[in-house]
Design a protein that fits this description.
- The chain is 55% helix and 20% strand.
- It is α+β, with helices and mostly antiparallel strands.
- The strands form two sheets. The chain has a four-stranded antiparallel β-sheet.
- α2 runs antiparallel to α3.
- The longest helix is centred in the middle third of the chain and has 32 residues.
- 17% of the residues are buried.
Length: 202
C-alpha cells in the first residue's frame, strides 16, 4: 500500500472519529437544546487535573483527621485503650471518606461536559443525576481565564474559564469551564464568538 493511500485512510479514520465524538456530544445535550440551537464546540475537563483537584479535597480530610488522632495520643487524660479505639474510628472514617471522594470524582467526571452554542454556554455536570446550567451569550458581560497553582503543578496546560453577567458576577458565578486544556486559546475562541453574537443583536 502506498504512503498516500495510508495517509488518506488515516485522515478518513480521524474524520470518522471526530464525527462520532461530535455526535456523542450532541446526544448528551439533546434534552436541553432549544429549537434552532446548534452546538458550536464542546469541551471535556482534563482528567488528571480534575482528579488532582479532588485529591486535594481528600488531603484536607487527612489533615483534619490526622490532627484529631495526634490530639488523642498527646492527651494524657485519655487511657491507652481509648486512644486505640479513637485511632481506629478516625482511621476508618478517613478511609471511607477518601473512597467516597474518589467514587464521587469518577461519577462527576463522567457527567461533566461543557459546550457553547449559537445561543448560550451550557455546563453539564452532576454525580448521581445530571444537572445543566446555562447562560445566554447576549447576557455575558465578563469572562476570565484562571490558571491556578495546581494547574502549574500537573503541567497539563490546563485552566478554567469563568463567565459572568449583571445578575451573576464572575466572583459569585458557577458558570465555569473548569480544568480544560489550552485555556487561553479556548478563552479567545469563545470570547470572539460571544462578541460576534452580541454585535449582531445590537
Amino acid at each position: 500500500m502506498k504512503n498516500n493511500d495510508k495517509n488518506n485512510i488515516q485522515d478518513e479514520n480521524l474524520k470518522k472519529g471526530k464525527v462520532a465524538i461530535e455526535d456523542q456530544v450532541i446526544r448528551l445535550f439533546d434534552d436541553v437544546l432549544e429549537v434552532g440551537e446548534v452546538i458550536q464546540k464542546g469541551y471535556k475537563p482534563n482528567k488528571a487535573k480534575f482528579a488532582f483537584s479532588r485529591v486535594i479535597t481528600a488531603l484536607l480530610f487527612v489533615l483534619v483527621v490526622g490532627a484529631i488522632i495526634i490530639g488523642l495520643w498527646f492527651d494524657s487524660e485519655i487511657v491507652y485503650k481509648e486512644k486505640i479505639v479513637g485511632t481506629c474510628v478516625a482511621g476508618g472514617a478517613l478511609f471511607s471518606l477518601t473512597l467516597l471522594v474518589m467514587w464521587f470524582s469518577i461519577l462527576c467526571y463522567k457527567n461533566t461536559f461543557y459546550v457553547y452554542t449559537n445561543k448560550r454556554i451550557i455546563i453539564r455536570t452532576g454525580i448521581f443525576g445530571v444537572d445543566y446550567h446555562s447562560l445566554d451569550l447576549k447576557n455575558i458581560g465578563a469572562s476570565d481565564v484562571c490558571v491556578s497553582f495546581l494547574d502549574k503543578i500537573i503541567r497539563k496546560n490546563t485552566g478554567s474559564i469563568k463567565f459572568g453577567s449583571n445578575s451573576s458576577p464572575i466572583a459569585n458565578s458557577y458558570y465555569n469551564f473548569a480544568n480544560i486544556e489550552n485555556p487561553y486559546q479556548v478563552y479567545k475562541e469563545i470570547k470572539e464568538y460571544i462578541q460576534s453574537i452580541q454585535d449582531k443583536d445590537e
